Amino acid sequence: MSWAVCSYIVPPKAKSNPGPEGPARPEKLAELSQLALDTLAGLEPELRAAAVISHTGEVLATTTEGEAWGRAAVELLEALEKAGPGDLDSSHITTGDAEVFMVREAGLALVAVTARFVLASLTSFDVRMSLRDIAAEIAAGGDPNA
Amino acid sequence: MLKPHRVLADKISSYADEASAFMRRRRHHRRPYIRIQYRDGNAIELHPEEPGSEQIMAAVTGLLELSP
Predict the structure, then answer these.
(1) What is the pLDDT of residues B7-39, one digit of tens each?
(2) Residue B2: inside a domain, yes or no?
(3) Could you tell me if residue B47 is inside a domain?
(4) What pLDDT, on a 0 to 100 scale, did the predictor assign at position A14?
(5) Which of B34, B42, B48 sits opposite A91 (nearest CB)?
(6) Is residue A14 part of a domain?
(7) Given A64, A91, A94, which is nearest B37 (Cβ)?
């Protein structure tokens, strides 16, 4: 008798938090961020735009052309930081026609805008995994093009 | 045995209940909100019209205007 096994493997969190002062060169971090956003766009068909932001507020990569969207994402991040006294982890904002996700992980933040009525928990999970992928690549010192 | 008109009345009221439950769920799903989670496990939920959430909603509006 065989049993159907369904599993979802969560990659381990990077042991060393590369953080903003980590060993990664800025251009490599930007390249990894862009790669992570491309992967996220493949996972999330409802994704409208996304950006990876460093802890200093620098936009590392976006899915949009131009810098305006990235700057707007940084403004949202700052507004969320001011909303409460705690150390920000994630946020989920819904409006009439879109949903906005923000996740902070490993010294980076990812802001993503999706269409309305996406599965929020899955989208948050994918966003978090994208950031962990970047952190794991940096920790491993891997070449993003490998 | 129920009288025929009662069966009909029950059916109509059960359809009406279903429809109102659907509308309630739909309203609930469409309700805009802001949920923020912190590393210590705490979470806050703000209504977009609450006093503390204007800056967030302004930032979100700016972000959505620029979104493709």
Answers:
(1) 888 888 999 999 888 888 777 666 788 999 999
(2) no
(3) yes
(4) 45
(5) B34
(6) no
(7) A91
